[in-house]
């Protein structure tokens, strides 16, 4: 990533922050029944993604959050919200496009690079863990069909998650193989990652949320706590409502 591109990305975040300040006193009404939110539970049963410190598939975490989120969104008036079924990454974006979603959120849970993993025994099995890193991360793609609006929603979401007492992880910015992602907002844990297929294939604003790092043993326990998960769900719903009010 060139210096000019980094400056551009940071400028876009700054513009979003100015927009949020301005729109706070000029927000319109959110017609929730007309605002369609597509929720993607990352990975599949067959390809489960990362494995937690206790041996649980990331997909289980993703699906649990996504199902709770859909339920709460519908109770909150976003009645046309829907959960995208298991399919290819391009297929998930295509589903959101076909259903004319207003917003796409892909739910994930995080891991770390192999060099940071250690072994421990849990349930009689050797498992891998890393307690060094913890926290959430948010990704957007500049190749998305509505990149600036994606940054706006990412900023709103990170702000609401921070209000719940969660903190961002900055480990994806480390200049090592497998990481080295462009961190455009250090305070909010927002990264630019153009190659994410589910984001760049979507015509509507789209972001990917890593809810936490499941190879961190303490964080895995928190993410298994329904009350803690509800903090994330509530933050998403507030951010979606705030974003909805910015749309004419």
Structure description:
The protein is globular, with a radius of gyration of 17 Å. The model has no long low-confidence stretch (mean pLDDT 93). The chain has 248 residues and is α/β, with parallel strands linked by helices. The protein has a single domain (3-16, 36-245), classed as 3-Layer(aba) Sandwich (Aminopeptidase), CATH 3.40.630. A hairpin with a 4-residue loop joins strand 7 and strand 8. The protein has a seven-stranded mixed sheet with strand order 2-1-3-9-6-8-7, sandwiched between helices. The longest helix is centred in the N-terminal third of the chain and has 22 residues, at 3-24. Helix 1 (3-24) crosses helix 4, helix 2 (58-75) packs across helix 7 (226-245) and helix 4 crosses helix 7 (226-245). The protein has helices spanning 3-24, 58-75, 89-98, 147-163, 197-200, 217-223, 226-245; strands spanning 37-41, 82-84, 103-110, 118-122, 125-129, 137-140, 182-185, 190-192, 206-213.
The first-level CATH class name: Alpha Beta
Radius of gyration: 17 Å
> What value does the average pLDDT take?
93
Amino-to-carboxy terminus distance: 34 Å
Main beta sheet: strand number and arrangement?
Answer: 7 strands, mixed
DSSP strand count: 9
Structural class call reads alpha/beta
Number of domains: 1
Gross CATH architecture: 3-Layer(aba) Sandwich
Query: CATH superfamily, please?
Result: Zn-dependent exopeptidases
Count of helical stretches: 7
Strand order of the largest sheet: 2-1-3-9-6-8-7
Order of helices and strands: HEHEHEEEEHEEHEHH
| Backbone shape | globular
